[in-house]
Automatic annotation (TrEMBL):
The keyword NAD belongs to this UniProt entry's keyword annotation: yes
Family: Belongs to the aldehyde dehydrogenase family.
GO annotation, biological process: L-proline catabolic process to L-glutamate
Keywords: NAD, Oxidoreductase
Superkingdom of source: Eukaryota
Protein name: Aldehyde dehydrogenase domain-containing protein
Annotated signal sequence range: none
GO molecular function: aldehyde dehydrogenase (NAD+) activity; L-glutamate gamma-semialdehyde dehydrogenase activity
GO cellular component: mitochondrion
Length: 446
C-alpha cells in the first residue's frame, strides 16, 4: 500500500502546479530563495519515487540462518517499534518531516508528527496531499503545539521511539526525559578543509559560498568553519568568496531573515570573535538595510571572520569559535602542512559530527593509513563526509545518507539504511518445529 501511496505522491509532486505551490508555501514560512525551496520539493519527490512499487516491502527484507538440527532455523527481521514520535525543526518544513514520516510508516510504525509550529502549515498541506493519494487518515497523528506541550505529550504517551531533529539543547533534554528512547539529528558545526592541491578556484569559491550562505546559513549542514591550506594564499579565493557573498540580496531571498538569532546577537558574536588576537573581519559584519524584518528575527549580510588556527584551539576561545550560529556566518582560518595535526585536534574536539568536506584530489591527503598519522578521513568521524575536488558540506540529496556519526543515538535520513536503522529494530525468531528424533530419551540433568 505504501508503495502505491509513494508512487501517487511522487507523481503529484512532479506536476509543476503542485511543486510550485509547495515551493512558494515553503518560502512563506522559511525564508529562502525559490531555488533552495524548490530543492526541498525536488528531493522529497525523488525520495518518494525511490520507494514506489515493492521497494517498501524490500526495506523489511529478512534473512534466515540454518539451525543445528532438522526443523530449526533462525530468522532475522526488521521489526517496527509501534507507537513512535517525530519532531522536526523550522528550516526544512517539507523535506525532513516527509522523509522521516514516510520512513516511520514504511517500517510499520504509528507516528505522531510535530513540526515546528512556525512552519507546520507546509506539512498540514502535504498530509492532505498524502490522504488524497491513499494514506489512511488513522495512520498518522499530526499535532501543532509548542515545544513544552510536546515535551509533556511525549512524557505522558511514552512512545517506544522518538526521532528528534533540531538543536542540541532540546536533543539533550529529551534524551534525559525519554530515558534514552530517542534518536537524534541535532546541531551541526560543519567544517571544510581545502587541501594543499590548489585547482578550480572559481568552482571551489562558489561551493564555499553556497555551503556557507544559501538559505542564509540556516541548514544544519551549513559550512561553519573553513580551513584553508597555505598554498591557497597565492590565489584570490577570499576575494572571490567576498564577491559571491556580496551578490546575495534580500529581494530574491538569497540572503534573508534569520529565525533563531537576532541581528544584535549575531553582531555581538562577531565582536567577541574580533577580540581574539589576530582575528579580523573578512567581509559582512553589518545589518541588512532597507527592510521590514521584525527585530525578533535577524538580518545580517553574509559574514566571514578570520581567526588564527593557534587561537581557535586555545581552551578559552574554542567554545566561542565553535558555537553554532544558525545564520549567514562562518569562521575562516588557514594552516600549514605541519599544522594538520592541530586542525585534526580541533575537529576531534567538536561535539556535533554531522557533515564535513575535504576538498582535495590528493588521495594521500584524503585517506589515513595507519603509518601516516595526520591524514583526514581516517582521523575524523563526521557521518556525512564529502571528499574530493567537488566536496561540499550541504546539499545532501535523498540518495546520500545524511546524519551524524560517533554517537550511538545518531539517526539518519533519506536512504534505505537510514530508514531501517531509525525506524525498525532487529528481532530474531528461531523456528524449531522438530521433529524430535525417534530414538530420543531423557538425558541426565545438566
Ligand atoms: N541534524 C539534522 O539533520 C538537522 C536538520 C535541521 C536542523 N538541525 C538543527 O536544528 C536547529 C534549528 O532548528 P530549530 O531552531 O527549529 O531547533 P529547536 O531545537 O528549537 O526545535 C526543533 C523542534 O523541537 C521542538 N521542541 C522544542 N523544545 C521541545 C521540547 N522540550 N520537547 C519537544 N519538542 C521541542 C520545536 O518546537 C521544533 O519543532 C539547529 O541547531 C540545526 O543544526 C539539525
Amino acid at each position: 500500500m505504501y508503495g502505491d501511496i509513494s508512487a501517487k505522491a511522487a507523481h503529484m509532486l512532479s506536476l509543476p502546479k503542485v511543486s510550485d505551490f509547495f515551493t512558494r508555501l515553503i518560502q512563506r514560512v522559511s525564508p529562502k530563495s525559490y531555488q533552495q525551496a524548490y530543492g526541498e520539493v525536488y528531493v522529497t519527490q525523488k525520495f518518494l519515487e525511490n520507494f514506489c512499487g515493492d521497494q517498501v516491502r524490500f526495506l523489511a527484507r529478512s534473512f534466515a540462518v540454518p539451525g543445528n538440527h532438522l526443523g530449526q532455523q533462525s530468522h532475522g527481521f526488521r521489526w517496527p517499534y509501534g507507537p513512535v514520535a517525530i519532531i522536526t525543526p523550522f528550516n526544512f518544513p517539507l523535506e525532513i518531516p516527509v522523509l522521516q514520516l514516510m520512513g516511520a510508516l514504511y517500517m510499520g510504525n504509528k507516528p505522531v508528527l510535530k513540526v515546528d509550529s512556525k512552519v507546520s502549515i507546509v506539512m498540514e498541506q502535504m498530509l492532505r496531499l498524502l490522504h488524497n493519494c491513499g494514506l489512511p487518515v488513522e495512520d498518522v497523528d499530526f499535532i501543532n503545539s509548542d515545544g513544552k506541550t510536546m515535551n509533556k505529550l511525549l512524557q505522558e504517551a511514552n512512545p517506544r521511539m522518538t526521532l528528534f531533529t533540531g538543536s542540541s539543547r532540546v536533543a539533550e533534554k529529551l534524551a534525559g526525559d525519554l530515558k534514552g528512547k530517542i534518536k537524534l539529528e541535532d546541531a551541526g558545526f560543519d567544517w571544510k578543509i581545502l587541501g594543499p592541491d590548489v585547482q578550480q578556484e572559481d568552482y571551489i569559491a562558489w561551493v564555499c559560498d553556497q555551503d556557507a550562505y544559501a538559505c542564509s546559513g540556516q541548514k544544519c549542514s551549513a559550512q561553519s568553519l573553513l580551513f584553508i591550506h597555505e598554498n591557497w594564499s597565492q590565489t584570490s579565493l577570499i576575494s572571490k568568496l567576498k564577491d559571491l557573498a556580496e551578490r546575495r540580496k534580500l529581494e530574491d531571498l538569497t540572503v534573508g531573515p534569520v529565525l533563531t538569532f537576532t541581528t544584535d546577537s549575531m553582531l555581538e558574536h562577531v565582536n567577541k570573535l574580533l577580540e581574539i588576537p589576530g582575528s579580523k573581519l573578512l567581509f559582512g559584519g553589518q545589518p541588512l538595510k532597507d527592510h521590514s524584518i521584525p527585530s525578533i528575527y535577524g538580518a545580517i549580510k553574509p559574514t566571514a571572520v578570520y581567526v588564527p588556527l593557534e587561537e581557535i584551539v586555545k581552551g578559552k576561545n574554542y567554545e566561542l569559535v565553535t558555537k553554532e550560529i544558525f545564520g549567514p556566518f562562518q569562521i575562516v582560518t588557514d594552516y600549514k602542512s605541519s599544522q594538520l595535526p592541530i586542525v585534526l585536534d580541533a575537529l576531534e574536539r567538536m561535539h556535533a559530527h554531522l557533515t564535513a568536506a575535504v576538498v582535495s584530489n590528493d588521495p594521500l591527503f584524503l585517506q589515513a593509513r595507519f603509518y601516516v598519522t595526520n591524514q583526514v578521513i581516517g582521523n575524523t568521524v563526521n557521518g556525512t563526509t564529502y571528499a574530493g575536488l567537488r566536496a561540499r558540506t550541504t546539499g545532501a540529496p535523498q540518495n546520500h545518507w545524511f546524519g551524524p556519526a560517533g554517537d550511538p543515538r545518531g539517526a539518519g535520513i533519506g536512504t534505505p539504511e537510514a530508514i531501517k536503522l531509525v525506524w525498525s529494530c532487529h528481532r530474531e525468531i528461531i523456528y524449531d518445529v522438530g521433529p524430535v528424533p525417534n530414538n530420543w530419551e531423557i538425558p541426565p540433568s545438566t
